[in-house]
Amino acid sequence: MDISAGIQASLAGRYASALFDLASENGTVTAVESDLDKLEAALAESPELAAVTTNPKVTRADAQKALWGVSAILGLSELAQNFLGVLAQNRRLSQLPQVIRAFRAIAAAQRGEVTAEVTSAHALTDAQLDALKAKLTAREGRTVKLSTKVDPDLLGGLVVTIGSKRIDASIRTRLNSLSQAMKA
After folding, report:
1. In 46-95, which residue ranges form alpha helices assigned H by DSSP?
2. Closest Cα to residue 96, out of 131, 133, 70, 115?
3. Using CA atoms, how far apart are residues 83 and 123, in angstroms rounded to an integer?
4. Residue-wise pLDDT tens digits, 30-56
5. Which of 103, 129, 114 is nearest to 34 (CA)?
């Protein structure tokens, strides 16, 4: 498997890479990815849980106990629970969101997927998303997974970001370009 040097160079990337290797050996990559999704949702919903992962006053043992309790409630796999324990013991829980992102990137690369962040002025319909996904898949030559968000400031159109490539077809950008051209 080819993991980008950028992911491997970061602290979170090294942890994510190690977790991915263990999950691959056990054949549980999809399960661990699902566990990380549950954990990310729990962190977003609970400011208290997020505080446990970022507060330096929380001891390693207390953080580990808290996360094991949360892991049991969420039904996380043993591998995910042990991984959280390692992060707690190494005082790296603050890196958890970055580890989750890096793990997703590694897993997607292994599957031959790429994630496209699509920002639109209004929520897109399922038919529009399917058409966009088909066009981006044809353009990229590999499976594209869409991550959508709405930004009314765009006025209309789309901004699509795939890795370091950005396709900006928003009305806001067109109006700004026209404004700059008229000033010249």
Report:
1. 47-54, 60-74, 78-89
2. 70
3. 37
4. 999 999 999 999 999 999 999 999 998
5. 103
